[in-house]
Design a protein that fits this description.
Arc Repressor Mutant, subunit A; Nucleotidyltransferase, domain 5; five-stranded mixed beta sheet; 3 domains; alpha/beta; disordered C terminus; 411 residues
């Protein structure tokens, strides 16, 4: 069987696209690298790197600068860096008590970020989409019109079908079967792809690439506010399930005789460790939200026995649930985000004791627990990473003819 010129050309183009993607991903994840470092990281030849960097530079995605001499013989390899303004995304986040929007450039550079608290009860789909559109317009207004927008990513505390951003359930927002992705695309009036995913999944992605999980390959991220969500990284890749529904660890049953959960079940983990549980244990109204939790933490720092006892109780329930997850998932790193990151100093003691008692010794010996490095912005920055994925996967679409964002979206 003979191989035609068209087949050879198609294979060559496929290889070129994959090589461009490999270079852009390395720079996006690791920051500026010399050509020599790119050769080592990608396995490409020096001549191939030189040609591909030239294409990316012509498209405005990378710049090169002379490398500093280190007293070694030979010509120093030029330093290649992504141009953060070469492509930007809009990142959005929807929590029960707040929304956020950011403009993020290639390499994870945050140009603009706004977070706005919202009263509970102001979380209908119509209100949320309208508020997000206004907040996105605000952060975009602070950037030059020449920004090349390539995508929009949104993080939401709910069960999301990634294919189209359909939220099947977000119990703490009061949502069921809402077409969030479509509604956002219409309200934002953008011609680029709009992607939606669960906030804990995106928090895990951000911590893996830019936070506490850098360099790790098996990471469990748990995030708590009103509810509890989880994101899992296995062999360096997100584990999201068949449709993107994986990670709803807040709704695993830990106390069959416990309190009713908003999901309709009883004794879910989030009823014992979520923000509402902590507030109730500390004698504060569940509706006091973030401000109430901050007050509990302040009281604990001042030595309040009531606040410390509440945090101790939450820590023990956290450890109990984590022990089951360690036994099933065998992570090497557990990252505590959101509420859990803020209360980490007060819960790590009882949490560790519960892990020691209940996790299998072999798995327990390998796992350690840390607070999120990205703080409350983990899910928002993960939404930016989600929005960049199409460009990272195939930068050749941008390189081809310096298309406008509208042309890219139509391609």
């Amino acid at each position: 069987m003979s191989i035609g010129r068209d087949d050879i050309g198609q294979r060559s183009e496929t290889v070129r696209r994959a090589n461009l993607s490999a270079i852009v991903r390395e720079l996006h994840a690791h920051g500026p690298l010399s050509r020599s470092e790119l050769v080592a990281r990608t396995g490409l030849t020096r001549s191939a790197i030189r040609g591909l960097i030239g294409e990316l530079a012509d498209a405005g995605l990378v710049t090169e600068s002379p490398a500093a001499r280190l007293g070694m013989p030979g010509r120093p390899s030029p330093l290649v860096r992504l141009d953060p303004g070469g492509a930007v995304v809009i990142a959005l986040e929807i929590e029960v008590d707040a929304i956020a929007a950011a403009i993020v450039g290639l390499g994870g550079h945050v140009f603009e970020l706004e977070r706005v608290d919202r009263p509970r009860g102001h979380s209908s789909l119509d209100d949320t989409v309208a508020d997000l559109a206004d907040l996105a317009a605000l952060v975009r207004s602070r950037r030059p019109p020449s920004d090349r927008l390539v995508g929009v990513g949104a993080a939401v505390a709910g069960i999301v079908r990634r294919a189209d951003g359909f939220v099947s359930m977000a119990p703490n927002l009061g949502w069921r079967d809402v077409p969030l992705g479509g509604r956002l695309a219409g309200a934002l009036a953008v011609s680029v792809p709009v992607s939606v995913a669960n906030e804990a999944d995106l928090g895990a992605l951000a911590e893996l690439r830019r936070g506490a999980g850098v360099g790790e390959t098996h990471v469990l991220f748990i995030s708590g506010e009103v509810g509890v969500g989880g994101g899992l990284i296995v062999d360096g890749r997100p584990l999201t399930g068949a449709a993107g529904y994986a990670g709803e660890i807040g709704h695993m049953t830990v106390n069959p005789d416990g309190a009713p959960c908003r999901c309709g079940s009883v004794g879910c983990w989030e009823t014992e460790v979520g923000g509402g549980a902590l507030l109730a244990l500390a004698g504060r109204p569940r509706e006091s939200g973030r401000a109430g939790i901050d007050a509990v933490v302040s009281e604990a720092a001042a030595g309040s026995e009531t606040a410390l006892a509440a945090l101790d109780q939450v820590g023990r329930w956290l450890g109990l649930g984590l022990a089951s997850l360690v036994n099933v998932l065998d992570p090497r790193l557990i990252v505590l985000g959101g509420l859990f990151g803020r209360i980490h100093p007060y819960v790590i003691g009882p949490l560790t004791s519960a892990l020691d008692r209940r996790a299998l010794p072999a798995s327990r010996a390998l796992v350690h627990v840390v607070p999120a490095a990205l703080g409350v912005d983990a899910a928002l920055l993960g939404a930016a990473e989600l929005a960049f994925e199409a460009l990272l996967a195939d930068p050749a679409r941008w390189v081809a003819s310096r298309e406008t964002p509208a042309e890219l979206a139509t391609a």
